[in-house]
Every structure is written in C-alpha cells, then in structure tokens.
Amino acid sequence: MKLTLVKTLLNLLALNLVLAGLAEMQKKSHTEEFEGASALFRAMSSSPNEGYSYSWSVVSFPLDDSTSTDEPGSGLNCTVLYLDHCTSWNKCRQTCLKTGATSYRWFHDGCCECVGEHCINYGINESRCRLCPEPGLEDEEED
C-alpha cells in the first residue's frame, strides 16, 4: 500500500513538473517583423470558412489606442491567425510570410501566430493554437 502511494505521489509530482514546463514554454516566444502584404493578409483572414479549408483560426479585436486622434469606432482591428497544429520556428516564419502578415510570434510550445498590420507588440502574447501542444501529450509523458 505504501509503495502504491509513493508511486502515485511521484507520478503526480512528475505531472506537475511537466505541466509547469509546458506552461512556461507557452509564455516564451520569438518574434520578427516583415514588410507584409496587407491586402493578402486581409483576404486570407477575412473569410476562412467560405469554400476553403485553412488550418488556422482567426482572432480579431478592436484596437484600444487612447493616443489615437481617430474617432471611437474607427474600425481598426488587430487580426491574427493561429495555426492549428504545432510547427517549427522556420515553418511558422515561412507560413506567415506567405499569408502577408507583418510579423509573427512563434511560441516555444510550437504554436504559431501570424500578425496583421494594425497590431502592436506582435499581436496576442498567448499561445492559443487549437491542436498545439498536441492533445494527449501530457498523457504520453506520464507513462
């Protein structure tokens, strides 16, 4: 009984360490700016479900720029694309270049975020890829 309890506690400790490491990787990222192709990025992010099957999700939110002289509701949004699957740093960079993004953020957990023209600070500093890290990764590491 004691041996089973010790094994269970060690497994829980190992799981906590794995999850803590994963949470830390989700916070760290690499960023880079591109010249970008705004019209291409808008086209790629405007209607992703209309007859096309892209492997990303689109997140768009209004800019809250209190220093702007524009009237409220000027319509400027920050739009980012999150690739669904984990990818390498180079694949993230190349994919974002091809979408016309003006910058990208590659998270150390493999999540890739392509950032549109009106975003500041490289979009959203949060790993939100649907399938990255891959589901079940934590389960495999427990064995």
From TrEMBL:
Q: What is this protein called?
A: Tsg C-terminal domain-containing protein
Matches recorded under Pfam families: Tsg
What keywords tag this UniProt record?
Answer: Signal
Gene responsible for this protein = Dana\GF20091
Q: GO cellular component annotations, sorted alphabetically?
A: extracellular space
Does the keyword section mention GTP-binding? no
Q: Does the keyword Iron-sulfur apply?
A: no
* GO BP annotations, alphabetical order: amnioserosa formation; dorsal/ventral pattern formation; positive regulation of BMP signaling pathway
**Species this chain originates from:** Drosophila ananassae
Superkingdom of this protein's organism = Eukaryota
Signal peptide range = 1-20
Q: Where is the Tsg C-terminal domain?
A: 73-133
